[in-house]
Amino acid sequence: MSFFKRIFSSEKKETLDKGLEKTKTTFFSKLTKAITGKSKVDDEVLDHLEEILVSSDVGVETTLKIIQRIEARVANDKYLGTDELNQILREEIAALLAETNSGNDSEFVVPANKKPYVIMVVGVNGVGKTTTIGKLAYQFKKAGLKVVLGASDTFRAAAIDQLQIWADRVQVPIVKQQMGSDPASVAFDTLQSAVAQNADVVIIDTAGRLHNKIGLMNELTKVKKVMQKVLSDAPHDVLLVLDGSTGQNAFEQAKQFTAATEVSCLAVTKLDGTAKGGVVIGISDQFQIPVKYIGVGEGIDDLQVFNKFEFVDSFFK
């Protein structure tokens, strides 16, 4: 199919295929049970399929869209065999994502006229935020760019320590203060340092708390405003990191953070250890915010650029 562009190297595609193995195995074992003894896609099969998609954390809204598309195919073709269901699902999910997510889901591109390019990273504690920052820094450095990290999650000593470990591992400079320091002050110092060093990219970590939306909004707004004293258009991107293994909880976190700040793109992590990989389809569809990266393994190279067609291809392989 023309949908499935070969943009990944074979090695990365293999990692993606492996990373989605648990999701695929669970999904297709349920699907096989649902259509056993059935030769035709009828209302009963569609009811079972709806349950399977929802239980795979695709989300209710996106599931209903997929079911409606398949119902239209059934009505149009008059007869669809269950042996065709896999291919139909693959085509309709790919087509849905192509139509509903028109955002740019490619990797970060650093414009020549925005230097340093500032990425503010948000997300609750434990979703893989610091790891994502470290892997992004590695990718940027590997591309020949000068990167500076900012440890603005000052509410946990562990967050500062973890970011320092990644800075040492990737061998990029980090700006930090003591635990309990003003997060906005750290962000300000980071941008000043990056400008002085003629850095290409700045990645700012932020506190991962969701105790209440007002407190979160105020804190993130303050960090933004202080950064704009150094660079008037900073941050250039706000990346929300979500843990794919939490399923529906990832949807809730996306709702909370998109209400609290202007999220421009998403990264969905930990897909290799879960059967809830369908969450990427639902989040990509419902929030209309580009999913830029997915985490499909522990390795430093296993933060992959998300391409919806390659994802669907691996899901149904």
UniProtKB/TrEMBL annotation:
Gene Ontology MF, one: GTP binding
Pfam families hit by this protein: SRP54 (PF00448), SRP54_N (PF02881)
UniProt xrefs under PROSITE patterns: SRP54
GO biological process terms, semicolon-separated: SRP-dependent cotranslational protein targeting to membrane
Catalytic activity of the protein: GTP + H2O = GDP + phosphate + H(+)
SUPFAM superfamilies linked: Domain of the SRP/SRP receptor G-proteins, P-loop containing nucleoside triphosphate hydrolases
Membership in a protein family: Belongs to the GTP-binding SRP family. FtsY subfamily.
Protein name in UniProt: Signal recognition particle receptor FtsY
Gene behind this protein: ftsY
